[in-house]
Specification:
This protein is an alpha/beta fold. Among the domains are: about 1-65, no CATH class; about 80-100 and about 105-155, no CATH class; about 455-660, Leucine-rich repeat, LRR (right-handed beta-alpha superhelix) (Alpha-Beta Horseshoe); about 670-735. The protein is built from 29 helices and 14 strands. The strands form 4 sheets. It has an 8-stranded parallel β-sheet with strand order 5-6-7-8-9-10-11-12. Strands 1-2 form a two-stranded parallel ribbon. Helix 24 (about 585-595) links the parallel strand 9 and strand 10. Keywords: ATP-binding, Leucine-rich repeat, Nucleotide-binding, Repeat. This is NLR family member X1. It comes from Leptosomus discolor (Madagascar cuckoo roller). One of its GO terms (molecular function) is ATP binding.
Amino acid sequence: VLFILNGLERLNLDFRLAGTELCCDPNEPVPPSAIVVNLLRKYLLPEASIIVTTRPSAVRRIPGKYVGRYAEICGFSDTNLQKLYFQMRLSQPGCSGEYSVGSSSGEQENLVEMLSRNLERHNQIAAACFLPSYCWLVCTTLHFLYFTRTVPPSQTLTGIYTSFLRLNFSGEVLDSTDPTNISMMKYVAKTVGKLAYEGVMSRKTCFSEDDLQQCFEVEMKTESELNLLEVFRSDVFRFFLTPCVQPGKEHTFVFTIPAMQEYLAALYVVLGEKKTLAQRVGKELSEFIGKVSEDVAVVLNIISKVLPLRFLPVLFNLLKIFPRYFSRLSGKDRDAIAHTMAEELFKEEDYYNDDVLDQINSSILGVEGPMRHPDDAPDDEVFELFPIFMGGILSRRNRAILEQLGCSIKNLAAFEIAKAMKKTVIRNSRKGLPPSELMDYLFFLHEFQNERFTAEAIHSLRTVNLSSVKMTPLKCSVLASVVGTTCHEVEELNLTSCNLDTSSLRILFPVLLRCKALHLQLNSLGSDACKEIRDLLLHDKCVVSNLRLANNPVGEQGAQYLAEALAGNRSLTHLSLLHTALGDQGAEVIAQHLAKNQHLQELNLGYNSLTDTAALHVVEVAKKHAMLDKVHLYFNDISEEGKRALHSLRMDRDGVRALVFLTAGTDVSDYWSHILNVVQKNLPFWDRERVRQHLALILQDLESSRRQTANPWRKAKFLRVESEVKKMLGKLQHGT
């Protein structure tokens, strides 16, 4: 028989004969501790084998004469074992029961390869993954980042870290022999949390031995407290803090996983451990006065009846005022927590960093392209997860898990913090945040898991600008979930250059329906995506009035889907298909369906390789349209004859204006600045040689028209426009 006794430190065993009697009969009823002691003495079932697991601090509780062999379980000493674990873990259907059919094995293999490469060159991550439980945390985080596609996401990042701590410390008491019986996680929050918080506030991640002593030992007064600290240092310290491997910092410590510093700092603040000396003294006095108030009341009542001392009841009432006054001060503490959260969430120096999800991804998988050595310290530490973790810890689910770990956060406290946050967080969010910071704000609302609060916060956001944020499936799910808490219309949603694909549009479909202006430029959206956009525009609840699809490979097939959408849509007034590879066939298809549309006012078909025939057909159809007022046709392959034909068709009296060239006969076009602005904005994304050729033709046309006019005012206008075109050509030639 093999007995495995897990967690010896939870038992207070007494190996003295006077404390535990001898017992060799398995049938004799004795207390559980006596059974364990006699098993270990080899007095009961001497043939049995026994394996005992324990924390280092409790190893000596079993006398050495009863132990045949000591072994310390350290972790993955071989990096190949780490890689094997990651390969097996990331190839499973999902570490949290969640999996998407769309996530291919190729993507999983790519993740394993990137992670392995980062482990080889990044010693600090390899040191963290020495502990198998941290390998679990890395894999669970990667699953969350890459394979979350449900709306709303089934878990939160804060939830992953809270579950990780429950996995390791659920039911753990720091020292079972200590009368305070403090839970291990509560002790970690008070000590390591303080170190983490001070590091976040001073923007540092490396801590010296002096820093550790200041946080752990400065308030130690009694022998009991020092014993607890000794147990903590031997059992738990190395789990959270590890020696730094950066050159020149060998004698300092860093958090094993960087994000854990921000989590513990957030826990330290939310638990209310961050108190001034006056607040601590006030709390102790309040508790003391509260305990003795009933006894004092009895005594004072008796004395006041015997002696005619009228001031005693007054004194008693004054004593009762203090706890009430302190309760008001504790309410101020919750205001301070809310203020800290808002202040950290909207720090202007963090406005132009990557969003937090990209930061986490980079910390695990590394950064693509040339960079400094991964173990070198960055120029400035970023702690943008700290306020997000504060919000996440306040969610009901995480509070329930933390309650099991001995870290209690009352419902009333969470409610009052949320109430105080409305004054600061929502007001700051209205200022107009940069895209990456806005994504962090949306992620904060998701982590907070308070639907009512989120609805109020989102209702004040009428414009959502996430341009250039890499919108992974997780970020799309967060956006859809957060915006989905309300049903109000969004004035503008800017998703320019966000790496969107067809699956992204499916996830965001309910949000896109409610957007009046929708910017989807520069997203590599092909014909499959256009099929989704067609379904969007034909939906009876669609309110999209301005749709920009510029610089996407729409093609002829995509044009077919968009033409079908135009025929049945009732909300769209402005459509931009600038540089979408339509060609003549795509433009013809759109022209054929345009007649069935009654609401479109502006159509941009610029830079689509249209020839004379297609361009003329589009303008002729536009002339007959009831509402269509403006058609953009610049930067197409239109000849001089086509130009003259278009000029005869585009007169204002025909009810449609065709923007083709910078000239209008012997005058400058009214829209020359608009056309040049469009070119200027899109220069980084267009074929430079082709743009240069078009600009050269425009310059020739301007010079020719200038020579034909005798009006000095018009000549001056031509010269001004020519100078702008020459500047643009100069920038192209110099590659700027």
